[in-house]
Each structure stands twice: as C-alpha cells, then as structure tokens.
Predict the structure.
Amino acid sequence: MTESTPALPKQVRRLRTAGIGLEVVTLAWNVVGVVLIAVLAVQSASVALAGFGLDSLIEIGASVVVIWELTGSGAEARQRFALRLIGWAFVALGAYLFVQSIVALAVGHRATPGVGGVWWTAATAAVMFALAFGKWRVGRALDNPVLTTEGRVTLIDGILACAVLAGLVLDLAFGWWWADPLAGLVIVFYANREAVQIFRG
C-alpha cells in the first residue's frame, strides 16, 4: 500500500487488528511492569524506579485510549476527556518526582539498587523500542495520528527505561547515589513535556 493508494477495507481491518495487537502487548507488559517495579522500588528505595512505575501506569491509560479509538467505540468528546486525564496524570507524576528527586539530592538519600531493576528496565527498553517501531509503521499505513502519537509515547518510554537503567547501573557499579534521583528528574522533564503537548491539543 502506498500513500497515494487508499487502503482497501480488508487492509484497513488487518491494520487495525495489528494496531490493537500492539497496544494489547504494550498494555500487558506495563500491567506486569507496574506490579514488578512497585516491589523492586520498595526493596531498593529507588526514586527513579518509582517514577518509572508511575509512568507505566500512564502508558496503560494511553494504550486503553488507543484501543478504544481503533475499535471505533469511543466518541471524540470522551476521547478528549480521557486524554486530559492522562495529561493531569503526567502533571501529578512530574510534581511527585520533582519533590522526591530534589529531597533525595538535598539529603543525600542512597538507594540500594539490585540486579532485578537492571534486568527489567533493560528488557523494557528493548520491548518498547520494538513496539514503538511497529506502531509507527501501522499508524502511518492507516494514516492514524492517534496510533502514531501513542507510538512516540512508547518510544519515549523506552528512552526513559534507558535513563533509569543508566542511573541504576551507575549507582550499583560505582556508588554514584546521585545518578538515581537525576534519572528521576529526566522523567520530570518528560512528564511536563507530554502534559503541555496534551493540553495544547
């Protein structure tokens, strides 16, 4: 299918099914991730891991919105309302992590990262990059800006996983305790950026 040739109904159905499948995989991965990261964050007292877990919750909400849109069951007004809820969730995430990271840096809080967090964030980065590429291809073929935009959120999720991974590895390998809250501040920047884009439409 080329950009100049409109998709046939069968092709559209196939692409929609592929898009929904990508979102279901994203949803399932993040549901497992929220539970696992919550346990790992408590064990390690990691600010960055806690923030990444909250970001996974937001990604779950974004995936639900896209599945809703692709199945054609969501009215435009309801979709706008859901997106605004995601925007406010990003604001809350950014505010929480900003306070936590600044306090951790000010008092010299030292997390105790373990290999579990390292392995999970590394695996998450690889999975999110693959899913983002798939969403970009399917969204472009469908000419669907909702799926394409959510694919960028998934891409950033993979980048955030890399940032958290770097903070954990630096702390674990070299004792650079400040790398963990700094990784948290990376998520703050991302959360604020995404909130602004959502509220600007």
